Amino acid sequence: MCGIAGFADTPDRTRAGSRRDADLALVHGMCSVIRHRGPDDEGIRVEPGVGLGMRRLSIIDLAGGHQPMSDPDGLVWVVFNGEIFNFPELRTELLACGHHFRTNSDTEVLVHGYRQWGVDVLQHLNGMFGLAIWDATRRRLVLARDAAGIKPVYYHVEDGTVVFGLELRAVLAARGGRPPLDATALNLLLRFRYVPAPWTVYEGVRKLAPGEMAVFENGGWALKRWYRLPAQEGTPEIRDDEAIEELDALYRRALKRPRTAT
C-alpha cells in the first residue's frame, strides 16, 4: 500500500513563491484521490518548482517514518512506496561511510544512499519500490520502478511540467480531467489482456517499465534502464539432489526477512 504523487517544473517554468498555496492544493488533491492507499498519514513538501506528496500506511518505524523525508540539510527529498529488504545492511554500510540516521525507516536509506552514490543507489537496493527523489542542488527529479515491476509509477509530461503518481488517478487529478483514450494501448489490451509499459489507456500518460527510471533535469528529461538482467554463462548439469539443495538455499535466503510494506 501507500501512495506517492507530485510534480516538477523545468527551470524556465519554475513557479513563483506566490503560487505556493496553489501548489499545496494541487499536491493535496493528488494525494486525496489515493487516500485509500495510506489512511494513516499525509505528507506534502512544496518548494518553488516541485511538490512531493505521500499517503502512508504505517508499518516500519511508525513514529519516524513520515514522508517526504530529507537529509539533515534538506537538499535531498524522497517519497517512496514499497520495502527495501536489505535496508539494515545498507544502513550499516552507510553508517560506516559517515552518514547519521535520525529514524529506523527504510526510506532514510534511500536518502543517504542517494547522497552517497547518486542514482547508482538503485543498484544497491534489494526490494520492491516506486519512488521519487528530488535533488534540490541539481534541480533533478528521479522517478524509478523496481526491477521486477511490482510497484507502478505513472507520469505525464507537458509544457515543461511533469506530474507523477503511483496510481493513474493521481496523475489525472493533476490534469483536471481524463485525456482521450490511447488507441495503441487499447489495441495492446485487446491483444494481450494488459497494457505493457510505457503505454497506459490514456493518451500522453505513461508508466515506467520494470527496472526503468526517468530523470528530469536542466530543462529536459530522459528514460534510462537502471537494471538489466545479468548475462550468465550456461549452467552445467547437476544432480537432482544438488538442484534441490540449491533451490532450498535460494528460498531460505529470499525468506530470511518478513516482507511487509512501508
Structure report:
With 262 residues, the protein is of the alpha+beta class. The chain has helices at residues 20-32, 87-96, 107-117, 168-175, 183-192, 240-254; strands at 3-9, 41-47, 50-56, 69-70, 76-84, 127-135, 140-145, 154-158, 161-165, 205-207, 212-217, 220-225. Helix content is 26%, strand content 27%. The strands form 2 sheets. A 6-stranded antiparallel sheet has the order 2-3-1-9-8-10, with helices on one face. A 6-stranded antiparallel sheet has the order 4-5-6-7-11-12, with helices on one face. Helix 1 (20-32) runs antiparallel to helix 4 and helix 2 (87-96) packs across helix 3 (107-117). It is globular and about 65 Å long.
Concise description?
The chain contains 6 helices and 12 strands. The chain is an alpha+beta fold and 262 residues long.
Keywords:
six-stranded antiparallel sheet, alpha+beta, 27% strand, 12 strands, 262 residues, 26% helix, Glutamine Phosphoribosylpyrophosphate, subunit 1, domain 1
| Beta-strand share of residues | 25-35%
The number of domains: 1
Characterize the main sheet: 6 strands, antiparallel
Total helices: the number is 6
Quote the distance from N terminus to C terminus.
8 Å
CATH class: Alpha Beta
User: What is the oligomeric state here?
Assistant: single chain
CATH architecture: 4-Layer Sandwich
User: Helix coverage percent of residues?
Assistant: 25-40%
Radius of gyration from CA coordinates: 19 Å
Please write the string of helix (H) and strand (E) elements. Answer: EHEEEEHHEEEEHHEEEH
Q: Could you tell me the CATH topology label.
A: Glutamine Phosphoribosylpyrophosphate, subunit 1, domain 1
Shape: globular
How confident overall, as mean pLDDT?
Answer: 90
CATH superfamily: Aminohydrolase, N-terminal nucleophile (Ntn) domain
